[in-house]
Design brief:
Blueprint: H1 9-15, H2 37-51, E1 58-62, E2 77-80, H3 86-96, E3 101-107, H4 108-114, H5 116-125, E4 130-135, H6 170-177, E5 181-186, H7 190-202, E6 207-212, H8 218-222, H9 227-237, E7 238-240, H10 241-246, H11 249-252, E8 256-263, H12 270-281
Parallel strand pairs: 1-2, 1-3, 3-4, 4-6, 5-6, 7-8
Antiparallel strand pairs: 5-8
Helix pairs in contact: 2-7, 4-5, 5-6
């Protein structure tokens, strides 16, 4: 049986400053070999460290799934909530404590299927929450079922003859619903991901960062892709946005752009608007 790592926290932080955001006593984590979720958690911690945001000013909220285990390893205010409802809980946290940096970690099934309705309305409201959406194209923890982002033709436990539904674009969905910051990164390009998380947190409004990250067990095994195959796919099939924009249309079809895909700063943030109404109703008091 695996045992928690016995390392003095001060020593760990001295070597890697972002360790101060981790619950070292909860390590090793439960994620599968080759899973990219740990890379995403690392990117979040490094971004917070670069921004100088203290643990006590961060709340991380999740629903259910592999990605939603992330707050268990984060040393801040954390909530592990019901399936698909992370954004509802996070909205409550942000309204009650608008000074906090609120981060949601969620998966493609958790956020865009079970929690799809909450997702589009959080985008619409423009509430200042940063969402890290781990897109691994499948329900990993709950049985390997097909999700809204499973590529057409791919295999899952519920599509043993191949997925016959078209998958939708999370980024396009978020932009269409009114999100003011939308970005895409991968678990392979960690340095870029740190920059995206940093920019998303700094943005005063709803920020969505889609992170393509491999599910090496449920998706990989069913689709005969090894760990290296999956990371090489991320490397070879995602392109920095500026390079992607220069590609002719026929070469874009099999590629995905990385980077900040949409950024608008012309809309009022939701909690600011909410408290303005409260102040008006209360006759000048909050």
């Amino acid at each position: 049986m695996l045992q928690p790592i016995d390392i003095p926290l001060e020593k760990a932080i001295e070597k890697k400053p972002y360790f101060k955001y981790l619950r070292i006593d909860k390590m090793p984590h439960i994620w599968c070999p080759g899973c990219g979720n740990g890379q995403v958690l690392k990117a979040i911690c490094i971004a917070l460290d670069k921004l100088g945001i203290d643990n006590n000013n961060v709340s991380m909220v999740s629903g259910i799934g592999c990605s939603s285990r992330t707050p268990g390893y984060f040393d801040g205010y954390t909530l592990h909530t019901t399936h698909g409802r992370a954004l509802a809980f996070a909205t409550g946290v942000k309204l009650a404590r608008p000074e906090l940096t609120v981060i949601v970690t969620t998966g493609d099934g958790d956020c865009t299927a079970i929690g799809g309705n909450h997702f589009i309305h959080a985008c619409r409201r423009n509430i200042d929450i940063t969402v890290l959406l781990f897109n691994n194209w499948i329900y990993g923890m709950t049985g390997g079922q097909v999700s809204p982002t499973t590529p057409k033709g791919s295999y899952a436990t519920t599509t043993p003859y191949g997925n016959y539904e078209p998958n939708f674009s999370i980024a396009d969905l978020a932009i269409g619903a009114g999100a003011t910051f939308v970005a895409r990164g991968t678990a392979y390009h960690v340095t870029e991901l740190v920059n995206l998380v940093e920019a998303g947190i700094k943005h005063k409004g709803f920020s969505l960062i889609e992170v393509l990250t491999p599910c090496t067990i449920q998706y990989g095994r069913k689709n005969k892709m090894g760990i290296v195959d999956m990371y090489m796919w991320l490397k070879e099939n995602t392109i920095p946005l500026k390079a992607w924009e220069k590609l002719p249309e026929e070469k874009r079809k099999s590629k995905l752009p990385r980077g900040i895909l949409h950024h608008a700063d012309n809309r009022e943030e939701y909690t600011h608007r909410y408290y303005s109404v409260v102040e008006k109703v209360m006759g000048g008091n909050k």
